[in-house]
Structure formats: C-alpha cells, structure tokens
User: Fold this.
Amino acid sequence: LNVFLRRGGLARDIVEAVLAHPGSWGSSEIGKGKTVCLDYSSINIAKRFHIGHLSTTMIGNSLKRIYDFNGYTTVGINHLGDWGTQFGKMIVAYKRWGGGKPIEESNVRELVKLYVRFHEEAEKEEAANADKHCALNDEARAWFRKIEQGDAEAVSLWQRMKELTLKEVGAVYDLLGVQFDSYAGESFYEDKMPAVIEELRESGVAKLDRGALIVDLSAYDMPPCIILKSDGSTIYATRDIAAAIYRKETYDFVKSLYVVAYQQNLHFKQLFKIIELMGHDWYKGMEHVSFGMVSYEGRALSTREGYVVYLEDLLNKAVEKAREIIEEKSPNLPNKDEVARQVGVGAVVYFDLHNDRNKDIDFRWERALNFDGETGPYVQYTHARCCSVLRKAEAFAAAEPDYSVITDDEAQDVLMLISHFPQVVRKAMEQSEPSMITRHTTQLAQAYNKYYFEHRIMDESDPAGTAARVNLTRAVRDVIKTGLYLIGVEAPERM
Ligand code: ARG
Assistant:
C-alpha cells in the first residue's frame, strides 16, 4: 500500500500537535501508578568524585527524567558506600596524623591523604615484623567494631566524614542539576541484615562452607557469593541483597535499575540470581544498566599512577573554557557567567551521553567544546538560534499560519525527526539508553540548521507563511529543549 501525504498538511498536524502542549511532546502516561527505583552515582564516602563517576550519575539522572516523563513514579537512590573496615582505618589515620583539626574544617582531599598514609604505614609495619603482624590494622578493626557497636565517639567521627563528603559532592550535584530521593547507603542496611540472612539460611539458598555462609552458584556457571565471612561480617553483596528486598517492600517497584560500571557485571548477575533463588519473582524487574570506562585525553585513569581527573576540576575547567569562548564570540551577552555554566557543564554531560553507554569514552576537550561538531554547545546553540528567530518574529503582525507553504525537503526532514521523537524517547527508556535521545536531538538540530540556512523564515510580503515557519521554529525549539532536558543538559536562550 502506498500512502501519499500532503506535505503542508503534515507540517500543520505535527507542528500544532507539538505546540498544543508545550514541553510534553514525547511524554506519556504509560507509567501511571508504577514505580521505578534507580540506583545511580552511589559514591563512596571519604573518596573523591572523579570523572569515572560521571556516567553513573548522568545516565541515572537521565533515565530518571525519562521515566518521569512517561508518568512513572521514580525513586533516585544514592546507595552510599559508607560501611566497612576502611572507616576504622580512616579514624585511626585521622587520630594519629590529622593534627587535631576538626573534620568539618578539613576536606575530602585531606581525608584521602590520611587514608593513603595509613596504608603506607601499615605496609611498613608489616614488613618490619617477622610474623607480618600489624598493630595498626588491629586498631583499625577495633575502631570499625566501635562504629558497629554504636560507640559515641566512633559514630560521630564516621558521621562527620560522611557529612563532609556529602557536602563536597553536593556542590558537584548542584552544578550538574542532579537530585536524589534517598541517600540510604550500605550502612542503612546493617540492622536489616539479620532477617535477610535468616531467610537465606532457612530457605536453604545459603549454606555454611568452611565457616562462611555462601550461596553456591556453580549450577549457573558463577563463582559462589559470600553472604557472611567466617568472622561473621557481611560484605557488599549481602548489603545489596538486603537493599533489593527493602526497595521492593518500601517502594513496590515494577523495575529496579542499577547504573553501575560493567566491572560489576558478575556482582549483579549473582545478586539477581540469588533474589530469584529466594523465590522472589520480582527479580525480573531488576536490571543492571552497565556502562564503559572513561579515559582522559587518550589515557586510562589510574589512581595508583596518580592519573586522576576530579569531576569538580573538569567541570570548572569546562565552564572557564566556555566563558572564554563566549567572551570572544559574544562579548555583549547578558549573564555570561550563567550561560558559561550551562554551556560548560552541558558540553561535558552531552559528551558523556553521546555514545552507546557500553562503549568506553575518551574525553577530549577539543571534541566536547567544539561548536560545530556533534556536541552539547552545538545543540544548545541551535536552541538559542530558534529563540532568537522567535524574538525577531514578535515584530511581525500576528497572522493565521498557512502551512501549505511548507513543502520543501529541508522542512520535511525536520518534521520527520520531530514526529519520531516520541518513539525515540520510548526506545531510550526500554533500552536504558539515553544516547538515543542525544543523537536524535542532534539530528534535529542539524536538520533545522540546514533549513534555516536555505530558507528565509520571515518574509514581510507573506505574513501567513511567516507565521507557519515561525511555528515550525517554535516546535523545533520545544523539542530540542525537551531532548536536552531528558539527558540532563540545560538550554540557554541566548549564547
Ligand atoms: N559504591 C559502589 C562503587 O563505587 C557502587 C554501588 C552501586 N550500587 C549498588 N547497589 N551496588 O563501586
């Protein structure tokens, strides 16, 4: 069956449909009454936020917006890494070498230094003792036990380290426009552990093996998962089992996503299998949204080799560079600082969400901030261009739009991209792949620019045609803005 569409009619239908509900083209109500949990960012306390954390934070943020846009209730969870013997080590190091400075006057950089020092000193001590005994490690274990037992001093120190980290990281989240509904981290599940362990034991899913409690997963070609170590302590995986159950009981999710690097593939496969073996068929709603690694200017990051790029530094540098470009290209722009922030941060976020998430990313300045390539600034600039057309159009007398004049191929491409946008949003959600929206929005920007250069939008002699072309521009602006919003990028009106 061949179908022929009258181009002008198509333009009218698509443009008017977009303009009927500004900001909601591509949205839906399919998630009404359903809840989705999203675990993303999930930083470790007393560690610094580096660019390796960008993807989990921004993919999670984007997916949350996409689900919200489709009517779901979403719960953004920052599953803090705030439990484990490393906090005993931190306390020992702080007490010995912290120079008596209150934690709140310190910063995470200093905490990390203290932690590194602990390891150096512990290594020295081990090397000096014939039996490899290390009193420093004993002391650290004792301090962690004190945290577990609720000792006032230990808990206060741990709590303050947590607050300090969250305060610093909060500044980065603000810059990125990222929010969470819950900061329930690993420590939160400590008192929920016994019931879970009991359930695992009673159901026979877990059994004792040389003093440790484990789940044998050999039937599924996976190594065993330790639930309780022989000294009775729990591990990361145990806390994730408790967290999964807690989330189901608390939020009754239809889906529970974990936006975590592919290095943890096995961990999540084990986790989902254990939930299944426990007889919870809601394991089907659990999904590991994995992603690749980030390198910087062609080199893999390595804490050990001292090659780390902190997210805050990267973002500040991006804003600074954007500011320089603005100063050079539009020195008269009002609120330059605000726009520099939107463009600098947008460039970084866009770069992160441009390729399929499982591909490794090599961050390059000249590619992220280029105004001509497939970049955040390019798409933002197209949005600002639309806004500028609309501002100029205000000088024209209002007329009833005549869409029958929109028959050219360039407009046709623009209209097709707009009309496919809702499907792209849906697909991005189903495949947990925000980059689909990034690329589609970029194509729309490219198509509009082509249209803009080849056609005159405002024509004094044709008010009705002008009104139609201005409305087309308005629809493009609306969809680009939505596309950028869904990937977590702001859309300035002037650049
Ligand atoms: N804090 C962990 C890490 O940095 C990520 C936690 C991810 N979420 C989870 N529920 N396991 O590796």
Observations:
- The chain has a mean pLDDT of 95.
- The beta strands are 35-39, 73-77, 207-209, 212-215, 225-228, 255-259, 286-289, 294-296, 299-300, 361-363.
- Residues 206 and 215 are 4 Å apart (CA to CA).
- DSSP finds 16 helices and ten strands in the chain.
